[in-house]
Amino acid sequence: MPHTMSRMGDVLAGFHAAWEFESDSVLIRYERGIRTPKLFQSLGERRIPLSALSGVTLTPGKRGTVVLRAEPRPGADPLMEAAAGQLKEGCDPYRLVLPAEREVLAEYYADELRALLKPDDGEPAERFLAPAPEVPLSFKAYDGKASFDGETVHFRWFWTGASSAKWKAGDQSFPVTDLGGVEWRSPEVFEGHLRLIPRDGDGQPVQADQDPAAVVFGLGYGPVHESLPFAAAVLAAVRERGPVAAVPASAPRRDPADIAERIRHLGELHQAGLVTDEEFSVKKAELLAEL
């Protein structure tokens, strides 16, 4: 006899979110509290089809909690595809943290969900199955303002942050039909940025601060809860119109003076406690390798 949820509309409430179980989907409603991650507040709620999931896990959490996590299929969710594994654990929209005393109930729902998933649900999805963030969307980067109306991405440069190369190129507009992909590098790491990949591009990209097809992040600019949904919405619109281009793996070699300046800036971030010892060592080695 096939498994079904005990009742349509059953709700499992945890910290910062509640999951409502339906026969073909899970409706995730995120709280709007001061302690709730801003990304969750930005997402509001998402209905995830079961066809977009590959599995379910239940593991011990921190400080007397358990964590129920739905595992999205590769290629099924534009938000997770744009994030490319860069989200911190606490901002994972597929995690539901519960008090440890609710472990038995959580295990029950985990078993019910597993029984509803098809054997081939672990295969990469051919198209996005989870919803993309709604447009219009916009956010302020360090060197400009990015906006997206569903058809065209616009970059308007700020005189206080944009490089001379971007000023020379002028404000930019990119129809989705001309794009082949999106590269999002989290603002929580060194050299975070959002870059648009042209559909017919075949050359190595220039550095983001010199590329008119990219905006760069900085302290307080392009936060995850604004820039990631933006990247996901653009990526979904691009995917609707054709294959997504592969993101170039490496950037061209830089001028030694530029490398020295970036190492100096990295050192300032390290001294200020904004970059850990490990992050400083790894990034410094990466910069020196580009010489």
The ordered string of helix (H) and strand (E) elements is EEEHEEEHEHEEEHEEEEHHH
Quote the distance from N terminus to C terminus.
64 Å
Helix content: 25-40%
Count of the separate structural domains: 3
Shape: globular
Structural class: alpha+beta
Q: Oligomerization state of this entry? A: single chain
Query: How many β-strand runs?
Result: 14
CATH class designation of the largest domain: Mainly Beta
Mean pLDDT: 87
Strand content: 25-35%
Catalogue the unreliable spans: 245-253
Which terms summarize this structure?
7 helices; 291 residues; PH-domain like; alpha+beta; 26% strand; globular; four-stranded antiparallel β-sheet; single chain; 3 domains; 27% helix
Could you please describe the fold and organization of this structure?
- The chain has 291 residues and is α+β, with helices and mostly antiparallel strands.
- The protein folds into 3 domains: 10-122, PH-domain like (Roll), CATH 2.30.29; 137-240, PH-domain like, CATH 2.30.29; 256-289.
- 27% of the residues lie in helices and 26% in strands.
- The strands form 4 sheets. It has a 4-stranded antiparallel beta sheet. A 4-stranded antiparallel beta sheet has the order 8-9-10-11.
- A hairpin with a 7-residue loop joins strand 12 and strand 13.
- It is globular.
- Mean pLDDT is 87; it is low at 245-253.
